[in-house]
TrEMBL record:
Pathway: Cell wall biogenesis; peptidoglycan biosynthesis. UDP-N-acetyl-alpha-D-muramoyl-L-alanyl-D-glutamate binds at residues 39, 162-163, 189, 197. This is UDP-N-acetylmuramoyl-L-alanyl-D-glutamate--2,6-diaminopimelate ligase. It comes from Corynebacterium heidelbergense. Keywords: ATP-binding, Cell cycle, Cell division, Cell shape, Cell wall biogenesis/degradation, Cytoplasm, Ligase, Magnesium, Nucleotide-binding, Peptidoglycan synthesis.
């Protein structure tokens, strides 16, 4: 790690002053140059942040970490003593509470020289982040941190979480500063907010996309889920850390999409929030979509009104995006609002979005077939419904049908599984239920829960659908092997139909029993399409006289 200006690494005494923690006098002079939550990644001159886990306390790995010192709580200190570990220890009341501010101190408060945009919500974070990145790149050097990884001035940097742990986050911000980045776009998950991963980061602009059912394995209720998101807007000390010198809440700008009741509530509770309404027609939002024209290819021409200033003066902005779906209209407006709040002129921000594509988000795969094939990350009930609704608008043929391949992730919210199956069977003509990332759960049990919802909504025996009607599904099939399920959907499709492979999007692996197996939905879909095209070509040649 390099530093672009004068820098003096903090001592444990400095960090004890910051946190109100305790360090033995004989170790107070020890300085640390980096920080890590992983005992395998911590440097010899680094601080190992030993947090309590669900099964094991991180302090049990301290002796073998090779770190210069350990940040832990009282229980961790007891374990270190029992283990005979003689590493210098800084003891705090709550490791997660202080890990961000401590890491910020260790890395020289890199956020102080950056304009930081944080985006939260159930769906749309990744797409909106990509759009904000592109809008900011029209004038600035930009870094982005999110689900599909980290980029610094367009160059990929590998990370593992949507919002990395606090020490990794601060190290990334330091690296971005050293590589001349001026603006950072960051996806902020509810897990990150609840677990303190963004404490110590003073956001300049914060945005809310929407809220729907997800992560109820982590949050006991939707209210708890909402409150986690809300802290980004109304509880700066809770997010940033009372001693981390956050930027004034009055200077922080908020953008809130009010397309759902949660957004409307958040806007009413956030002073000075710029509001976004993406439903075409007149409206009183700060940013209001007046009209949308959609082409058969999925490109959308949008007329947007921006009401700026207390006098109610407005400007009209016309722009185009190559992303299909009404939800992407909302994502694009949120992005323009964020870029504007960060200092980019609205028209310039809007013009920059024309050709943005996002991996695994309504991503069309074309192998020359005569039907539409799409990969999408939809892995929650609302997202499944939104994707299927969008596909019905872009069918190549007015009599075309829709099929969906989907599963549900293991070790996650079980309640959403039958709902995903229900939406799939209610809105598609064929449903192929398969494995997603089973993780540590029984894959068959997961499929059964999705299947139960699908069968409940599927077309009953002997019932006929009207021509052009999509859903209820007349075909529901369970195929455990995901590659085979994708191939089955491709085989099912006829000219003018559409199929969507849902749930994994950009992911390059499938997690089963703790092992990550190589798997790419786009690659598997491409392979299945190529095989079908080759088979059709062979058949056509055989039919020729």
């Amino acid at each position: 790690m390099t530093f672009s200006g004068p820098y003096s690494p903090p001592t444990l005494h400095d960090l004890a002053d910051l946190t109100g923690g305790h360090v033995a006098p004989r170790h107070a002079h020890v300085s640390v140059h980096s920080a890590s939550i992983s005992s395998q990644d911590v440097a010899a001159d680094g601080l190992f942040c030993a947090v309590p886990g669900t099964r094991t306390h991180g302090a049990t790995f301290a002796s073998s970490s090779g770190a210069a010192a350990v940040l832990t709580d009282a229980r961790g200190a007891e374990l270190l003593e029992e283990d005979g570990c003689e590493l210098p220890v800084l003891i705090v009341d709550d490791v997660r509470k202080w890990m961000g501010p401590v890491a910020a101190e260790v890395y020289g408060h890199p956020a102080k020289g950056l304009t930081i945009v944080g985006i939260t919500g159930t769906s749309g974070k990744t797409t909106t982040s990509y759009l904000v990145e592109r809008a900011l790149m029209s004038e600035h050097h930009v870094g982005i941190i999110g689900t599909t990884g980290t980029r610094i001035n367009g160059r990929p940097v590998e990370t593992k979480l949507t919002t990395p742990e606090a020490p990794t986050m601060q190290a990334l911000l330091r690296q971005m500063r050293d590589e001349s980045v001026t603006h950072v776009v960051m996806e902020v998950s509810s897990h990150a907010l609840q677990l303190g991963r963004v404490r110590g980061i003073p956001f300049d602009v914060v945005a809310f996309t929407n809220l729907s059912q997800d992560h109820l394995d982590f949050h006991p209720t939707m209210e708890d889920y909402f409150q986690a998101k809300r802290t980004l807007f109304v509880d700066p000390d809770g997010v940033y850390g009372a001693n981390a010198a956050p930027r004034s809440a009055a200077k922080r700008k908020a953008v809130v999409c009010i397309e759902d009741v949660w957004g409307q509530r958040l806007a009413s509770e956030t002073e000075g929030a710029a509001t976004v309404s993406a439903t075409p027609g007149p409206g009183a939002a700060t940013w209001n979509v007046e009209a949308v024209q959609v082409s058969q290819s999925g490109r959308q021409d949008i007329t947007l009104t921006h009401r700026a200033g207390a006098d109610g003066a407005s400007e009209t902005i016309n722009y185009s995006i190559g992303l299909a779906g009404s939800f992407n209209v909302a994502n694009s407006v949120i992005a323009i609002a964020c870029a504007t709040a960060a200092g980019v002129a609205p028209r310039r921000a809007a013009a920059a979005l024309a050709d943005v594509q996002v991996p695994g988000r309504m991503q069309a795969v074309d192998a020359g077939q005569d039907f539409l094939a799409v990969v999408d990350y939809a892995h929650k009930p609302g997202a499944v419904a939104a994707v299927l609704g969008t596909l019905s608008d872009y069918l190549p043929s007015p009599t075309g049908r829709i099929a969906i391949v989907l599963g549900a992730g293991g070790n996650r919210d079980r309640d959403k599984r039958p709902k995903m199956g229900h939406y799939a069977a209610a809105m598609a003509d064929a449903v192929f239920i398969t494995d997603d990332n089973p993780r540590d759960e029984d894959p068959q049990a997961i499929r059964a829960e999705v299947l139960a919802g699908a069968r409940e909504a599927a077309l009953g025996p002997g019932v006929q659908k009207k021509e052009g009607q999509h859903g209820p599904a007349s075909h529901v099939e369970e195929i455990a092997d995901r590659a085979r399920a994708i191939a089955a959907a491709v085989a099912w499709a006829q000219p003018g139909d559409a199929i969507v492979i849902a749930g994994k999007g950009h992911e390059k692996g499938q997690e089963i029993r703790g092992v990550m197996h190589e798997f790419d939905d786009q690659a598997q879909l491409t392979s299945a399409l190529n095989q079908r095209m080759a088979h059709n070509s062979t058949n056509n040649q055989e039919k020729q006289p």
